[in-house]
Amino acid sequence: MSSSFFRAILLMSASFGATQAMAKPLHDFANVTLSPDGAHLATLEKNESEQPGTRVPNQIVLRNLPDGAPQLVGLPCAACEPTSPTWSQDGKHLAFIMREKGKQERRIEIVDSDGKNLKTLLSFNGSLQDLKYGSDGRLAVLAIEGAHRDPGALQAGAPQTGEIDAQQDEQRIATVAGDHLQWQSPADLYVYEYSWREGGAVGETPRFVGTAAPGNGDDHWWLAKLYGFSGEKADVLYAPPLSQQLGLPVVSPDGKTVAFVGGLMSDFGFFGGDAFQVDLTKPQAKPRNLTPGLKGTVTGLSWCDGKLIGAGLAGARSAFWNLSGNAPVQIAQSDDLISNGSGEPKLVCGKGRSVVVRQNFTKAPELAIGVPGAWTDLTHDNADQPAHAQARSVTWKSDGFTVQGWLLSPLSRKAGVEHDGKIAMITQVHGGPSSAVTPRYLKARSENERLLNAGYDLFLPNPRGSYGQGEAFTQANRRDFGHGDLRDLLRGIDAVERVEPVDDKRLGVTGYSYGGYMTMWTVTQTNRFKAAVAGGGVSNWQSYYGENGIDGWLPPFFGASVYDDPAVYAKSSPINFIKNVKTPTFIYVGANDEECPPPQSLEFYHALRTLNVPTSLVIYPGEGHGMREPKHQDDATARTIAWFDRYLNR
To answer: Does the pTM of the predicted model rise above 0.85?
Structure first.
């Protein structure tokens, strides 16, 4: 079956909500999964809806390599949402988790490599995620029996009623045993990630290595340790310092070592830092740093043909290092974002080949195949997708650091947006702060594309605290939120103004999460910006500490709790400088946001209103940390553009 014919099937499918009258929608690729023998590929794919306010579910697509002809797996319902595809060791079967919209039950499904013989292995009342096959054919998963809500701090919080913390959801490793799960980790530990530890005899109790912490899973990840698991027994392998979080544990094929990423991380799932390795054959062995002093950030780890490969960011580029020797050796780099469909570089490999999603700001994503650094396109589904902007990388110096950011400009200027040959620019600060803006394709109808269409340039900086320049750079805003990173932003704008005709009198600033905080902070420190939009921000670190559901992330970044060192929180709290604000500021947040609760936005809004600074606040019902409902996304974007138009285009 040809790729274009497969695309036609998706276009005609009712589940994709497309009609013949519509232009070709963007085709998305996610969760790239390659069988160990490199012969079979599975992905989650969908066509973006052309109907505003409509969410499209993913479908599972199988391909035999190297030809890549796609085979759509037929799911039993239009509202079924598959996740976590994983191949059996022999490549004959693909297992995945499936949930039907509106239902609590999750199911583990299995299908043959040709897309036939779909059957249910297990039905489960609770949460399931992160399926993994062991070499002996057993299937493991992370599970929460009777989960009160979907796990993760980004999800909408459950109502706070009754006795608080009386019952904690604990996520555990389990193996599939017939029609039920058999627990493989203790009941009092929340397991975040895990890897099979192979090398034991067939039939032995399964062994795993993973990251875990007792108690509240959302809150305690920043204190997680590395554990070895055998049955329901757990032993601490490594307890990191306060300023280091752990992610992406990967056990070597021979079961003798485990590698992981360690660094200062602000959010579970946004992993970055140095790569470390622990010898599992030696009791109490200390981790060895595999990338000391690396001028980059490791964001992915993979075992490829007996070699440990690190993927990551080096400045503006995706980079890949062989970490199996005494020092990291770069084996590939690219101006494109090279990943498994996520926002950070990751490498997916199996027996002599790798398959990745390749994209940049102006080139839509495609699957690519080959050895690292020599990938060729496997698909051409988005060949007709246009660029929606011009993009360039900008670098500048700040306090001895080399800082990098992205400048996006419209392909053509609307009449009337230039004032004396100059244009308005909006600085958009990313969340985190341990994260980075990477060159992902600019989608039609995205907020950034709509801002560009409205006539604005966009500046997307990666200030200190970001990934891509090494761990020292990521740690550089520790106990210094809003100070050094704001200097980086302002100097970055100066650098842009040297290469682009930006009107310094028509600057806007916006951001969400940490970017929302930085927006609130910025307008208390400078009047350089004439309009601001703060999404899901923090106005008062002192009150925030007691309001949010994940205060565990604060001591690693502030060095102590607010009760032990209130001054370090006070010096970075926008509310303490609120009387400096002159900038009109629009604010929005999700009603059930546990990371940045609505009272933080209410406090900032109330202060601005009292001080007669133009302001507006919208709290979106049912939303957690980020807008999930397309209608809320569209509304927030429309209000954002209207706010900037009002104050920047006078």
So the answer is: yes
